[in-house]
Amino acid sequence: MKTLSWLKILIVSLSIVIAGFFIGQTNWNSLKNNRKVQVKGLSEKEVKANLAVWPMQITITDNNLTNLNTKIEFQKKKVLGFFKSKGFTDLEINIGISNITDTKANLYNNSPKQNFRYLSKTDITLRTTDISKIKSAQMESINLASEGILINSKNQWRPVEYLFTDLNSIKPEMIEEATKKAKEVAEKFAKDSNSKVGKIKSATQGLFTINDRDSNTPDIKTVRVVTTINYFLED
User: Fold this and answer.
1) ∠ at Cα 121 (119, 126), nearest 5°?
2) How far is residue 149 from each of residues 73, 108, 139, 190, 221, measured CA to CA in Å?
3) What is the pLDDT of residues 37-80, one digit of tens each?
4) Chain centre distance of CA 119
C-alpha cells in the first residue's frame, strides 16, 4: 500500500518536472524566436523647386474716385505689359479685383488727418514653373518705380514662394535607400551581438518633409524621409 502511494507521488512529481521542462523550453524558444532589433534608415535628397508663386499688391491712393479708377487701370495695364515683356503668359499672370476703401467711412480709423480719401489695393499673382524667369522679373521689377508704380510683395520676408511638387517621382528611390540604410544598421548590430539579420517583422515609413536647403537658396529643397524597421535576429 505504501509502495503504491510512493509510486503515485513519484509519477505526479515526474509529470510536474516534465511539464515544467516543456513549458520552459516553449518559453525559451518563443523568446529566442522573438529576438528583434529596431533600426532607422534615413534618405535625403536635394532637388530644385519646380514651381514659383509670387503674390504682390499694388496700392494706390487719391481723393477723387474717378482719378483713382484711371490710375488703377493705367497701373494694371503697365504691370501686365511689364510681365508679358519678361515672357509670362496670361495663364501665369493673375490680376485680381481692385478693392477700394473710403477712409472717411472707416469707423475704426483713429488717424486725425488723412492726406487721401480713397485707398485701392489690387492683388497680382505670378505662378510659373520657369524659376529663372521669375527671378529675373523680381530683380527688374524695380524699373516700374520710374513710372510711378510700386509693387509690394505680400510677404516681405519671402516675396517668392518656391515649391517642389514632383515628390511622387522620387519617393520609390528614397524609400529604397532608407530601407537599405536601415538594414546596414541592423547588420552592424547583429554582427556585434554574434547574430544574423532575419526577416522583417514590421516596417513604418515616416512622413516625407520638404524644406529649404538654407535661407539664401529657397529654390533648392531638401527632401527627407526616415524609415523604421523591426528585424528578427537569428543565431
Assistant:
1) 165
2) 12, 28, 15, 68, 33
3) 889 999 999 999 999 999 999 999 999 999 999 999 999 999 99
4) 37
Name 203's bridge partners.
Answer: 229
Query: Can you give the pTM of this predicted structure?
Result: 0.77
Residue ranges of the alpha helices (H) in the chain?
2-33, 65-85, 131-140, 171-192
In 3D, which of 209, 203, 233 has the Cα closest to residue 222?
209
Say how far apart CA 233 and CA 194 lie, in whole Å. 10
Give the distance, in angstroms, between the CA of residue 160 and the centroid of all CA atoms in the same chain.
17
Which DSSP helix (H) or strand (E) runs through 41? Answer: strand 36-48
Q: Which domains, ranges and CATH numbers included, belong to the chain?
A: 35-49+165-235 (3.30.110.170), 51-163 (3.30.70.2970)
Q: Note the pLDDT tens digit of each residue in 79-115.
A: 999 999 999 999 999 999 999 988 877 656 555 556 7
Q: Which residues contact 203 (CB under 8 A, 6 or more apart)?
A: 179, 227, 228, 229, 230
CA distance 104 to 161: 36
Neighbouring C-alpha atoms within 13 Å toward the C-beta of 157: 1
